[in-house]
Amino acid sequence: MSLLVSHHLFTTTPPKIHDQFLSLKQKHTKKVQSATSPTCKIQLNPFKEILPRKQPPAQPSIFPPDYISPPEMNPLQKLIASSLDMLEESILRKAKETQKFNRMNDPAIQLEGNHAPVQESPVRHDLQVVGTIPKSVQGVYLRNGGNPLFTPISGHHFFDGDGMIHAINFVGEDRASYCCRFTRTNRLVREVEMGKPVFPKPIGELSGHLGLTRLAIFVARALAGVVNIIRGSGLANAGLIYFNGRLLAISEDDLPYHVQITKDGDLETIGRFNFNGQLKDALIAHPKVDPITKDLYSLSYNVLLKPHLKFFKFDKWGNKLSELPISLKEPTMIHDFAMSENYVIIPDHQVVFKLCEMMWDKSPVVYKPNKVSRFGVLPKDATHESMIQWIDVPDCFCFHMWNAWEEYNEHGDKIIVVINSCMTPVDSIFSGGADESLKSQISEIRLNLKTGISTRRVIVSGMNLEAGMVNKQLLGQRTRYVYLAIADPWPKVSGIGKVDLDTGHVTKYLFGGQRFGGEPCFVPANEEDGEEEGFVMSFVRDEENETSELVVLKASSMEQVALVKLPTRVPYGFHGTFVSPEELEKQAFN
């Protein structure tokens, strides 16, 4: 997952340190002391010396003083907390002498250049616009990403950062504003209160013996009531979806978080959203809204407990229509799925979770080469898991799936056509293999529901295409075009490709020079217009001139029509969405 499946993989020049960070930290610390306890001291960077190599950038200070308050603990809890802190620090100091990172969990790599975290930015109005913003582009473009508040105390993977949303509000002719805000997750708020990272990072830290130790200390803190995991421990850093009046920020380790878009274009976290008490499970990063029925479909995988997978369906009003357990032999990483008119298509790939591997000082995220990948075709109105049909799709690992539809072949057999990007080596985004060997090829997979046989065809070869979307008004229907990030040279995103699925032709828009971007977002012009009538936008970072921009392209020609100059740096990130003015008017406030 640049972005996305490479979400933070880029390697760039060393970051600049935020000069104002220290003074802000000192200012906040003094105000907390005076407002609470004369002996309380909040440190936002307590473990600077843990990292042995070049330092990642100082982390931003973002919460007003009245938001930073020490946790309320009784004397016994304070004693336990202090003892666990000393134990943890001692273990980490010893571990740094022997700990080795691969490039995918090395903080010095994962947080350098434009992957370095930024401070929150309040709304900045009247941004400079080059060109003309199309009249039909009205609303808010939002993009999620990982932005760690604290310097990592061990390993750091690009999936591990605290969720931060960047928003561009288009209001009127050639007018735009910008802001970025952390999503106030329980995890983030609690760590700010304690002045240090206490929740283990799900990928970068939970590996090997040190990961087990970090997990044991976290469990001890939870049992002592020092941290409250009942309120959630997720990052809310990956996906964004607007459904039934709510913008939901999603990661696969917690319930979604409801984030409100204010009239001024600012962002405010409302809190965890459990669909009014109907949802107890985390959702994967890519739920789907059926453009015709407006129903929401999603999955949830559980690493610890059976069933390891569940399927959810909600009607357009947010009422849960289905919660269907799906039996898997072992917990599988399922980041995305596809949806056709009548089915959802669920991947069961070769990347699985085996927590016992940590006992052997290995990562719990495991690639199983002997496992045969398969896709499950499940009717949208299924009432039992026996209604799913599994079809083997050998040697296929697709982190993202762009679209699916139904058609019939010359024999009258129903075929499910799935468009996705197949990645090799399968475990590359976890193992830290060489960038040169990684490939992400957009492919067409055909699942024959009568014969149970699959075929796979590479649509575009010789080009890494990852992260993007089709015209969402046609999701689940046959589409001709998909708009994807050109991740060449991997893992940087050098441009946007409009892929013609019929011919394999790619119309490219290249950012040029040392300018790199992320996931493109398609914004339809009007509901009545054709598939390619709309606009494509993406954040872009000019690494040479150290400026950030938003480019807007006409989808039919892939020519730039506008460029919005941004007042602050926007790091590379994950996934985004666009919220129209009509949707903004129907926002829910709870």
TrEMBL record:
Keywords: Dioxygenase, Iron, Metal-binding, Oxidoreductase. InterPro entries: Carotenoid_Oase. It comes from the Eukaryota. It holds the Pfam family RPE65. Its cofactor is Fe(2+). Belongs to the carotenoid oxygenase family. This is 9-cis-epoxycarotenoid dioxygenase.
